[in-house]
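Tutorial handout. Part one gives the primary structure; part two gives the three-dimensional structure as tokens.
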Amino acid sequence: MSNLDRQATPTVCGGRGFVVAEPVRELLSPRHVQLGESTEVRRLLPNLGRRMVGAWAFVDHYGPDDIADEPGMQVPPHPHMGLQTVSWLHDGEVLHRDSLGSLKTIRPRELGLMTSGRAISHSEESPKPHARFLHGAQLWVALPDAHRNVEPHFQHHADLPTVTAPGLTATVILGELDGARSPGTAYTPIVGADLALTRGTVTRLPLDPDFEYAVLSMSGEAEVDGVPVLPGSMLYLGCGRTGLPLRAESDAELMLLGGEPFEEEIVMWWNFVGRTQDDIAQAREDWMNSDRFGTVRGYDGPPIPAPALPDVALKPRGRVR
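Part two.
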């Protein structure tokens, strides 16, 4: 998914300077962003209070939207570099096309994982016809320097491992949780999991104390370590946890995001993750004037032009809050 903000500003992320080394409860409120003509998203990362969680660098939550009489998601071709995109749905379908020739309809609780590496472009749209409701999350994972120029590739996994406990089913989207590992390719120690809780559940989820974590509420009423987390908000939890207390006041669905704190400093601008201003400027130039990012075939509409670069210098400075 693209960052369609035409006034895109640089975000400096990474490094351990602002990682919280102990458990905390930091509630993050979303910023509302229009995505295309008909989809509004709630952007949780990057946030004024938190730039990254492990290698997770971008989180949008959208829906549930009634799109029965609407076109639904319509995101024209756009570029990515230096990151992975993770598509995760609870309702609806998204048709993915990319410059490698991939064409796949992603359905609820199936992993759509695109590794941009050095360069890729893709589009996302609600198919015709489509389901009445659209509800999901789109996330980016920053690639470490050793892998940020890998060959681009796309993976789709419909069968994902689960971790279960009374009242809890945790689907492992990326990385590893309690011994269950996703088949999706990960380049850093990371975890992403979908947590489905039934009403009245009180449980504790095992965690890795070396990871930092956050929980995004997708639906329902739940408490995370005693903090009520409403749909569309995210609770940052810091590091040093061996377990996470969960309580469901109703049937509830959450996303657990975590990983080892990202050591490197990065620059994130528009749909690019780089290390320097020159990386970003070159990527923008190549998207507008070369074939580096390839061509998405089959989408009915032109690609998205890149916004103008800001006048300020883009410098990586770590996890500036």
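Part three, for discussion. The helical segments are 277-289. The mean pLDDT is 92.
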